[in-house]
Design brief:
The chain is built from 34 helices and 17 strands.
Length: 794
Amino acid sequence: MRAQKGSTARVAKCAERIFTLPEICIERERYYTNSYQETEGEPPCLRQAKAFAKTLDHMSIQIYDGELIVGCPCSKARGGAVLPELNAQWLREEVDDMSVRQWDRFQPPSAREKEELLALLPYWKGKSAYDRWKKRIPKSILELYQSGFIGGVTFSSNGFYPCHVAVDYGMILRQGLQARYEEVLKRRDALDLYQIKNLDKYHYYTAMSISLDAVRRFSLRYAALARRMAEEERDPVRQTELKEIARICAKVPWQSAETFHEAVQSVYMTWVALIIESWGHGMTLGRPDQYLIDFYLRDRAAGRITREKAQELLELWFVKVNGTVTLDDHDTATCFAGFPQAVNITLGGQDREGNCAVNELTYLLMAAEEKVGMTAEDLVIRVSENSPYEYLLAATRLAKSLKGKLKFVSDPVAIAQLLADGYPLELARDYIITGCNSPSIPGISLDVPGGLFNLAFMLELALNNGVSRMTGRQVGLPTGDARKFTTYEQVWDAFCEQTRYFLGAAVLMTNADREIFAEFLPIPLQSALFHGPMERGKDLFNGGTGRYARQSISIAGAPNVGDGLAALKKVVFEDKRLTMEQVVDALDANFEGYDEVHYLLSKAPKFGNGIPYVDQIVDQALIFCSDVLHAYIGVCGTPLITAAATITANVPLGYGVGALPGGRLANTPLAEGGISPYQGRNQNGPTATMRSVAGLTHTKLTNGSVLNMRFDPNALKDRAGMEKFTDLLRAYLLGGGFFVQFNIVDTETLRQAQKEPDRYRDLLVRVATYSAYFVELSPEMQEDIINRMEFGAL
């Protein structure tokens, strides 16, 4: 049984519609394929724009009973689209398994849908982004990829767009899309076409105009549908609602918004169009407490809306975004398990002048989230020195209510990260979190994450002369027989040599991926709603944001590396309790028959306990990765930066790594989160854990990092407990920590949910940097969450 979602019966009814296995929608595949067949030989930007417009003009639309916020990115109440231009050939082998795989299951398509889905795929063979990417990568590098040093490799192979962004929604609400459309035409008509350099701009501005106008027609289709439904509606209350929906959709997002309802509908309809154009995880909603506040206050002052009605509209908005999921193949879903959409909603913090940005709508958005609490919408709580204590306490209450479903981020650290990468202070203060953990500037900056780099595997290769223990293959560099290493520095040098070599391969892969998007898969609608692409006549993926762009690689397994190196340094080279030969032999045997060796290594200092000895090694490893990446340049001159995050890839990445000298056994998950201590190792309490993480050099991890923590709910059972939690949180985020999120659920409850899943259908857990329903996760992922250290006291 699920608890009712929403503060009203209307919201509950709309939410119940979403509680179903998602379906595969083939309409986008149909119209994109048809359009691409019609536009052979045209510039890529025009082909993309025309395919997008054809989809918006012909796809099914629907307004469900009780809705006040309308629009759907596909034909299903909860569904995912097929993106053939990226990578959908995998559906040939997996379409029949989608409904029975362990996690992220989809309802089986009808026989007719399956037939059409498969019939459309042959056109894209050799033309998809993934096919183009494979042809660009040298065979030797592709072979390296198969060794398992990186997961979630590229967006083209994953089959979704790199949409970790937020457009300038405030600009849309103030001006409407019409103003952007008119500016596009003005810029296009002013071009001197006798200058060959302007030809690409001419085509690109035309693509922008096609895309913007398509959104106008799309919204008008909903207006017409609402009018028809109103004519047939017998309930006078619902008839009035449908007429109002028709009026609003005929106005926004094409024109500027005037009321709160218009503003929310305008943002949502724009978001729907953006998803259709560039479907993927992380299409962020920016800072709605900032861009919606004036509409709310004006409506309240004029008596046009009550607080309760405004909250209902927000709840309906949250419910709607949960109808969108991303269709992932089996391997990709192992790295992104739990249907993460990462529709981030960043709240609070500072404004561009450094003033406290918390306002009445901040609290209203939190109230709406408490009533809805589904998986797609994801609140990010910015914490600054001038954040009101009551705001932080309210966020703590909400986190407890939703079992932890919030992200908490430090303003001082996030702003320092952006400043370190050359962003001006005014923009840095306006940051949001996109995707999982990436600071970015809405409507200004493109800050896209990359693959998940398996740093723990680098330590294995350093200790095994470049040979993978799990496969026996020579995949890394021959850095020497570790049995003969006589100093810690030799171990460190071998680790650095392997890391440098493989990071270079990772950069090549992600750069080739970005080139494919820049050349063949522009996104003219999204680009038109940014500052920069319009002025430059360049796509978002092709340098449109100028210097406000960064490209990253995410590091996985750093705590395992720190634990392992610290154990070797302490036990072998300082205390001389073991020899390198004993350690390597034990690793070869996965510690079987080497109980004493395993015991000594396991008792060495471990990251997450407030021990500088090991914390500094984790920091050194991450700094080294950052420095290596900074030496490379990305597509369009973007700098390469570093994150420390794993999503759920710590589980599959761990399957490819043998035993490690910190005591971790072969074929088991790596440390989760990114900089979370290895599961169960942080035994000195939450303060010590936070002290270890806060001590890292976060200005070297400027694409973000993730700390997960788990608390027994009894630790927050009363106001005193919640105040202690709030104080701990505030001290961490203002004392050097960047990001933290929580599971506030005890082990007994999780074990019971495994036994009786039907009783716990709506049990939310924080998986990675997103939430999912615990019972919908694979057994391996459930165990990974349970194995995280549970703190029973503050």
